[in-house]
Amino acid sequence: MKIYVVAGEPSGDLLASGLMNALLRVRPDVEFRGIGGETMAALGLKSLFDISEISVMGFFEVLPRLPLIMKRIRQTVKDIEIFEPDVLVTVDSWGFVSALLKKLRRREKQHLVHLPVIHYVAPQVWAWKKGRARSVAKLVDRLLTLLPNEGQYFEKYGLKCDFVGHPVVERVAEMHLDPESFRAARGIPAGARIISVLPGSRRQEVKRLQPIFNEAIRLLREKYDNLFVIEPTLTSSLDERLNNFAISTIALAKSGTVSLELAAVGVPHLIAYTFGKISNLIAPHVIKVQFANLLNIIAGREIIPEFVLSRCRPELIAECASRLLDSPSEAVRMVVEAQKLLKQLRLPDILPSDKAAEVVLEVITNNPHKIKSL
User: Fold this and answer.
1) Mean pLDDT for the chain?
2) In a domain, 370, yes or no
């Protein structure tokens, strides 16, 4: 059994590695090849190239990378054709993936073959353009969704969707958390106020958010003496990162999956995000949802404070962080509400990675000859 996996950013790398592990438990003979990061590499996958080359967001931020991205797409298509997998699994990163699949589908028509494609993580058509669901259905044979209501946007175009649940719930449940020992080992006093600073995984995100978070911390230090700031590195293990979260009083985080991890561990936090200046002006006219944070979107109101685009300013972030530090009851209320919402992000009787693996194996079984005539 041969499976080609494409994950274009660190969050996708974690998702893909969970799926790979689940598949290996059922089929130890499976052979993986593709594009991924460190956690996929730990399972033996040698990435075709470094995913940092294609991990970029923003309307104009992508432009300087386009020649390299197109080169990597051509390289990936060629590698898929050489490998001849039973199925292609693409994970998140719809911008890169859609361009890859369009080129791959054109190549398939020339050879009169069709490679089954499963995409893991539904593109957020409800946030950007609902009409994009039609183009997703043309490129993908099966869609694995993280949210229970996402399938409705794609199924009307004939795309079969499977709600598998959000792997954050699974990852946190499997972790060994021992915050007191973790704190003691680092010599942090019991009464210290600890702030986790999490500016993201992409270089561009860190470059934009790190100075803003640093200035917010400087403003907080003017008010609080016993302030400890920790910033887990990208090379930290998941266990270490979540233990860092668990000892935190509050966290300042980039908008994204990390917010779900913080909520699952029980850390009051705020989220922030900003593009470049031009993209910040365009974004409000393109994005069709009121909130950036997934938990806020599910709730229909702001549970996790958001500081995005023009509101991503140090003084506003520092003011909110100060409220969370000074009002434990407000912080606890946030965590309780967030954890209630997290329960909606999993199936009751099967873990997300196992469900995703189940679908992958079903698709391969239903396509025993690997290719079919168009």
Assistant:
1) 88
2) no
- C-alpha 313/C-alpha 209 separation (Å) is 10
Provide the residue type at 79 as one letter: D
For residues 139 and 179, state if they share a domain. Answer: no
Dihedral-angle region of residue 300 (phi above 0 means left; psi in -120 to 50 means alpha; beta otherwise): left
Q: How many CA atoms lie within 13 A of 352 on its CB side?
A: 28
Query: How many domains is the chain built from?
Result: 2
Q: Which domain holds residue 301?
A: 171-345
Say how far apart CA 39 and CA 13 lie, in whole Å: 6
The dihedral region occupied by 169, where left means phi > 0, alpha psi between -120 and 50, and beta the remainder, is alpha
CA 166 to chain CA mean position, Å: 10
Task: Give the domain CATH number at 28.
Answer: 3.40.50.2000
pLDDT exceeds cutoff 70 at 129: no
Supply the pLDDT for residue 372.
Answer: 41
Which amino acid appears at position 66 of this protein? L
Give the pLDDT confidence of 258-316 residue by residue, as tens digits: 999 999 999 999 999 988 776 677 766 666 667 889 899 889 899 999 999 889 999 99
| Token pair belonging to 3 | 């499976």
**Cα distances (Å, whole numbers) of residue 352 to 43, 148, 230, 355:** 19, 12, 30, 5
Asked if the structure places residue 309 within a domain, the reply is yes
